[in-house]
Amino acid sequence: MAPIQQTKATRAIRMIAATIAILAVVFVSWFLYAIYVLEPNEANVSPIGLLNSSLMAALAAVTVAYARSVWRRSLGIHDNPVKLRFFMGFMVIYPILIAILLPYALIFAIFALLLQYMNSLFSRPFTRSISE
User: Fold this and answer.
1) Is 1 within the bounds of a domain?
2) Which of 57, 82, 84, 126 is deepest in the core (most CB within 10 A)?
3) pLDDT tens digits, one per residue of 12-62
């Protein structure tokens, strides 16, 4: 398949995808710095505190991977759709489920919806060939 023609729109989409990935990493870095350096307490090293930190790190990792997939798709390289559905499901459903523990994790659901919209801009139309 020929690569997608480089236009201002594809460059803008790649820039937005990279910005979302960087924002996710910066947000989680700030989160970890705030709870372990600025105001450390025993609750942060409890099992629930470590679980919260692990959940935020997992969400950041999936956000970066999904942004990379959007970047590749804007270049004309198509990834496995099952992997993209997993990223989308994980990034939207997971923050909603843990919103009781981490209400600020909902920003990752917003990131996922933005990335999914950008990913859909480069999706192939579904056409069925009818053989006669």
Assistant:
1) no
2) 84
3) 888 999 999 999 999 999 988 988 888 888 877 888 888 888 888 888 998
